[in-house]
Amino acid sequence: MPLSEKLERLIAVSAPLWAGEAEVVRTYWDSPVRTRDADLLWLRRQCFKEFNGKGLGEHKDLGIFMGPLTEIMESFPKIDRTVDRRHVLGLIETIHDEFTHYCLFADVYDSIRDDNTPPLDPHKLETWDDDDILTQMRITQNHTHGEIGVRASHFTEGGYCTLFREGARLEGRGGVDDQIADACKLIYEDEFGHMLAGVVGLDQASLSDTDFDLMSGLVVDQLRARIRMRNSEFSYPLSEERVQEIYDGKIDPEPFDYEKAEHVMAAHR
Ligand SMILES: [Fe+2]
Ligand SMILES: [Fe+2]
Q1: What ligand is nearest to the CA atom of residue 56?
Q2: Using a CB cutoff of 8 Å and minimum separation of 24, what contacts does 178-183 make?
Q3: What would the mean pLDDT of 203-228 be, rounded to a whole number?
Q4: Helix/strand/coil percent split, the chain, to 5
């Protein structure tokens, strides 16, 4: 079953911004800003997002681990009374997936650090300015616009898997690049599904044109913020001028895998 016309429009406005985020990561791999320390920095920051990132409409804004875990515990006496079993299964899968991503990147970090760098301690990981801007934007939108905000936040999750797709393309280069590629390949499949979780049901849901326009606006704001979040995560491989050009649409859109999306959405329906 093909994706709805509305969803195709949402993908069309998103694709140039996805391409911008992909350009950040792709440029970084062979950029002069890339050093061992810069690799350790982005891995720490990505581990933070996978371990305790916030803003996806998770329970009480408690983050990607404690949010679903707390909701699972609170749901236990209500399962199949007032809380659907599939909803709980989804929460369990979320924790499983995101904690797996954390483990994969933490393993890469610990395998490339030198003896003077302590092992990764997730409780010492912190957000950074541009990541916090994105997180606060999502939390505000989720609270202000309810379901529309949460759908937008899920749809922009991973920015169409850009880090993971560009990371997977390092395969065959040897050393740390192959380790990054192996981690990214595994994560890519999960994140493709997470992104579509924001739009599953959108075809059938009677989302009004007004609501859809609102959601598109939220998605664009978030995707623009994502480019700055990634650029600082990766020690600024792109200049501010280039970021502005991307905002102005001077970039080829990221091709979207419609066939894969239809396949994943059909499995969810
Ligand atoms: Fe993740
Ligand atoms: Fe995810």
Answers
A1: 2
A2: 179/108, 179/111, 179/112, 180/108, 183/104, 183/105, 183/107, 183/108
A3: 90
A4: 70, 0, 30
Q: Which two tokens stand for residue 182?
A: 């192996």
Domains of the chain: 5-268 (1.20.910.10)
Residue type at 247 in one-letter notation: Y
Res. 262: pLDDT tops 90: no
Distance from residue 141's CA to the centre of ligand 1 (Å): 21
Distance 115 CA to ligand 2 centre (A): 31
CA 210 to ligand 1 center in whole angstroms: 31
pLDDT in tens, 113-126: 999 999 999 999 99
Question: Ligand 2 centre and the CA of 190: distance in Å?
Answer: 7
CA angle, 51 then 157 then 235, to 5° = 70
pTM metric for this prediction: 0.95
Long-range CB contacts (within 8 A, 24+) of 180-186: 180/108, 183/104, 183/105, 183/107, 183/108, 186/100, 186/104
Residue at token pair 């003077």: 116
Tokens of 44: 């720490």
For residue 48, which ligand has an atom nearest its CA? Answer: 1
Q: Measure 97 CA to ligand 2 centroid, in angstroms.
A: 7
Which two tokens mark 232?
């600082």
| Residue closest to 201 by CA, chosen among 183, 191, 189, 215 | 215
